[in-house]
Amino acid sequence: MTFESHGHVVPALDRVSLDVAAGEFLCIVGPSGSGKSTLLRVLAGLHRQSAGEVRIEAEHPGAPLTAMVFQEHALLPWRTVLDNVTFGLENRGVARAERDARAGDMLALVGLTRFARHYPHQLSGGMKQRVGIARALATDPEVLLMDEPLAALDAQTRTIMQEELLRIWATLGKTVIYVTHSLEEALLLGDRVVLLTARPGRVSRVFPVDLGRPRGLEIRASPAYGALLEKLWSELRDEVVRAMSEERSADAG
Amino acid sequence: MALAATRRVPLGLLVPAALLALWELCARTAVLSPRYFPPPTAIGAVLVERLASGDLGGELLVTLTRMMLGFAVAAVLAVPLGLLMGMVRPVRDAVEPYVAFIFPVPKIALLPFLLILLGVGEPAFVLTGATSAFFQIVISTMGGVQAIDPRLLEVGRNYGAHGARLFRKVILPAALPSIFTGLRLGLGLALVAIVAVEFIAAKSGLGHLVYRHWQMLSTPEMYAAFALVGALGLALTRGLSALQDRVLAWQEDTGSL
Amino acid sequence: MTRARRWFAEHWLAVASPAAVLLGWEWASAAGLLREAFFPRPSTVLVHLERLLADGTLWNHASVTLARIGWAFALAAVLGVAVGLAMGLWRRLRESLDPVFAVIYPIPSILFLPLVSFLVPAGEVVAVLTTAVTSFFLIAFTTTHGVRQIEPRVVEAAVHFGARGVRLFTTVLLPGALPFIFTGLRLGLGYALIVVVAVEIVAASRGLGALLWLSWQVLKVEDMYATFLVIALLGAVLSYGLAALRTRLLPWVQDVAER
Q1: How far apart, in whole angstroms, are the C-alpha atoms of residue A64 and residue A69?
Q2: Which residues pair with A25 in a beta bridge?
Q3: Is the domain of A113 the same as that of A84?
Q4: To the nearest whole angstrom, how far is the Cα of B90 from the nearest Cα of chain C?
Q5: Taking each helix axis from N to C terminus, what angle separates C174-203 and C112-119, rounded to the nearest 10 degrees?
Q6: Is the separation of the CB atoms in B130 and B74 below 8 Å?
Q7: What does the DSSP assignment read for C72-91?
Q8: pLDDT in tens, A49-64
Q9: Which of A227, B168, B184, C246 has the largest count of CB atoms under 10 Å?
Q10: Separation in Å, CA of C40 to nearest CA in chain B
Q11: Could you tell me the pTM of the whole model?
């Protein structure tokens, strides 16, 4: 998959060009305002980019090109968990029996089978996010997009969810593009990490993450991880500082 | 950005203006019977004339006075009662059946009873308006107290506020938005009730004017009174919402309908 | 059975208080402390109520009132929801109609009686239309608000997962607005009762409002109380009955203090 994109009226992104391999877990990290979310939304088709193109090689006809997991889960409150997961499939005209079966599989994968008939408001934040993941996976997209899906969770739930994500991804092997603020998270989850600059976002550097697969949380204790973290942070730090000073001057002005 | 703003304002005024113009046209060309639907210009003329002569102003004052009196009586009684009901469970249990029973009843249905008790006159009219407002204010106030986040109360007590102090410093401010909303709605209800009462049973006031001119088929005067009621209602709802926003600036949403 | 008993134990005052008042009233009225002409004994009122039921008067009037409410509400509901949805979805429409609505809505419904009587030949239609007016605006307002308060993120996600056009409407916009639409319908129904009683007092010879007023004019005080009781009952059923339906129809809505 390739994408190139250009910013909008207010340039959010400036010449981003990337190639993503099938089955890869790509993480995108950048300071606030670097346009990470915008990039993802362009990929999802939620935003029209002002220039450039997105090309996704469809290997499975009939499957959607992308499916997104939103930061604030964005579930439909009036639908049960199961109906939320089947939503995408419903819209694609999949028959009931098949959709329910598929949704059932996804719910089992995220560990929420028991809550199929619950309503979103009865679930915790972490659980709601898992439903969001199940919903995206249910449609079997070519590329799974994740927009800071764990940002709204508390630290402990977040760690558990990171473990879950590693497990799910190891099982399914999907191509994932994952946006996050957290360098630690990006290194933990990704095969490659893309650093964006402050606004307008450009690709600053792309780092391969050679930490081996399959991976578990214990990788965080390894010296290789620590070294990578240091290296990436020193690159990222400048951009973050630049973004913050821009904010400050915007406030003052 | 500037372009969008200038397009937005006219549309809001354009439609009413267009409707009025259409009405004017239909009335003048007798598509609409000018007897029953006099042209807006005729209505406007009457409105101005009667306002200038003080007639309309006088009736407006009568209606306003009744409304304010009714509202005041209701508020003075309802807010304390609502607070009490919210804070003291036995009081709530004892009083709530009556409130729940009367609340869904059209208060206009109380009018005949008040007329018997107090005769046909101001007290009966004002009280009918008062009852309309009363129940709304009680319910809103009580709801406001009940909805207070228990953690706020905990924090208050933690910092040494008890009894009257807790009330003044924590309970009252926390319930204030709901109380205010109740008062606002109550005032609107009082107006509606008073005008309805005037229409039915009074010999003065804007509501009565509409009725009288309806019976006499002096339609320009009728519409003029009608328009004045509308303006009054609009001014009240908008004005009070704005006031609420100002006074309770720390609240996010006044929930105004 | 124990649940009822537990409720009673906690809320005995709620039952005892009205019971005490009624008993006190009965006694005071019989003993002459309350003027029986103004405050007839509850037992007498009940006797009169029974009589009104038996000779069919009550049903004659009540059925007329119910029919008017039914028609008026149906009209207000169908039009109100339709217009409200349209206004919620199309900004231009909303901006055009908002000022008109805002001016008309606060006007006491009874004042529309003359207008309607000019437009429509005398008869049931006048009563029904007048009753429908404020309810219509109420329902339209709440419906519009219901559509607009749907979280844009939710709509975005739904669109992303393939919901467009009619599907978006039926799976997202309509259910999203439903709690508010329901509240509007409840309030609209309550308002219809209020207006219909007022209309009947002014301009009708049949209906509960008319019966109330008639009873007053001939000073049949017991009948007044009896009629009032029926009106109150009707009000309670309309108001609380619909509220009870809410949890059944809208299982996903967490309770919001609303009345």
Answers
A1: 14
A2: A176
A3: yes
A4: 7
A5: 90
A6: yes
A7: HHHHHHHHHHHHHHHHHH-H
A8: 777 777 777 777 778 8
A9: B184
A10: 12
A11: 0.83
Residues A39 and A19 in one domain: yes
**B37 to C118: CB separation less than 8 angstroms, yes or no:** yes
Cα–Cα distance for residue pair B243/B241, rounded to 1 Å: 5
Instruction: Indicate yes or no: CB of A72 within 8 angstroms of CB of C156.
Output: no
Selecting from B96, B106, B113 the residue whose C-beta is nearest the C-beta of C14 gives: B96
**HEC states along chain A?**
CEEEECCCCCCCECCEEEECCCCCEEEEECCCCCCHHHHHHHHHCCCCCCCCCEECCCCCCCCCCEEEECCCCCCCCCCCHHHHHCHHHHHCCCCHHHHHHHHHHHHHHHCCHHHCCCCHHHCCHHHHHHHHHHHHHHCCCCEEEEECCCCCCCHHHHHHHHHHHHHHHHHHCCEEEEEECCHHHHHHHCCEEEEECCCCECEEEEEECCCCCCCCHHHHHCHHHHHHHHHHHHHHHHHHHHHHHHHHHHHHC
Task: Provide the CATH number for the domain around residue A184.
Answer: 3.40.50.300
Domain of residue A98: give its range: 73-140
> Is residue A180 domain-shared with residue A88, that is, in the same domain?
no
Of A36-50, B54-68, B95-109, C13-27, give the lowest mean pLDDT range.
A36-50
Distances in Å between the Cα of A49 and the Cα atoms of A7, A156, B172, C22, C92 are 7, 37, 52, 74, 27
For residues A152 and A236, membership in a common domain is answered with yes
Distance CA(A99)–CA(A213), nearest Å, equals 32
Q: Which residues 130-149 of B are in CB contact (within 8 Å) with C?
A: 139, 143, 146-147
pLDDT single digits (tens) C231-251: 999 999 988 888 888 878 888
How many CA within 13 A on the CB side of residue A11?
Answer: 13
Across the range B69-96, mean pLDDT stands at 93
Whole-angstrom Cα distance, residue C69 to residue C208? 11
Which two tokens mark C231? 């009106």
Chains in touch with A (3+ beta-carbon pairs under 8 Å) read: C
Decide if B59 is inside a domain.
Answer: yes
Superfamily of domain C42-245: MetI-like (1.10.3720.10)
Cβ–Cβ under 8 Å, residues A157 and A80: no
pLDDT, mean of residues B208-228: 93
Question: What's the number of domains chain A is made of?
Answer: 2
Could you tell me the residue ranges of all domains in chain C?
42-245
What are the two backbone dihedrals, phi and then psi, of residue B101, each rounded to the nearest 5 degrees? -75, -45
Pairing mode, if any, of strands A2-5 and A54-55? antiparallel
